[in-house]
Amino acid sequence: MASPTHQLSTRELEALSSKAITAKDTAYCPYSKFRVGACVLTQSGEYFLGANVENASYPVGTCAERVAFGNAVVAGHRDFKAIAVATDIKPAASPCGMCRQFMSEFTSPSFPVFMYDGEGNHTLTTMGKLLPHSFGPGDFTH
Ligand SMILES: [Zn+2]
């Protein structure tokens, strides 16, 4: 099977990774102590950050990926180039099922997802690999 590819320049990838890693510092995770940072790059070249925001009522908390996409979407963006997600563990963590569905709304199967471990090393995958046979906007016929 072919390895995932991406269209990012070296400069874009460096910016995306450093912003996602730095975004871990803004996580609100007093319960899990599990910091997650995310950064999404728009097709127009803008970066939007996210971090996990927990809640005393555990299920109410939200993930870094959804915060990053939400920030970008409310700023008017709908077209995205890539996302990076950073945690402190090794190997790198991948987005949860809820985030996979959330991200699939705005991405194609080839959309690159860079997952960074605590040492700054990354694994590259795609939305299609994370969420095959997904239900999305294209499934509505009305
Ligand atoms: Zn998630």
Task: Kindly summarize this structure in a few lines.
The chain is α+β, with helices and mostly antiparallel strands. The chain is built from four helices and five strands.
Element layout with pairings:
Blueprint: H1 10-23, E1 36-42, E2 47-51, H2 64-74, E3 80-87, H3 97-104, E4 112-116, E5 122-126, H4 127-130
Parallel strand pairs: 3-4
Antiparallel strand pairs: 1-2, 1-3, 4-5
The chain binds zinc ion.
Zinc ion (ZN) binds next to helix 3.
**Discrete helix count:** 4
CATH architectural category: 3-Layer(aba) Sandwich
Q: Helix share of residues?
A: 25-40%
- DSSP strand content: 15-25%
> Would you tell me the structural class of the helices and strands?
alpha+beta
The domain count comes to: 1
Structural shape: globular
For this structure, what is the CATH class? Answer: Alpha Beta
Radius of gyration: 14 Å
In the sheet with the most strands, the strands line up as 2-1-3-4-5
Function: This enzyme scavenges exogenous and endogenous cytidine and 2'-deoxycytidine for UMP synthesis.
Pfam families: dCMP_cyt_deam_1 (PF00383)
Domain CMP/dCMP-type deaminase: 11-138
GO cellular component, one term: cytosol
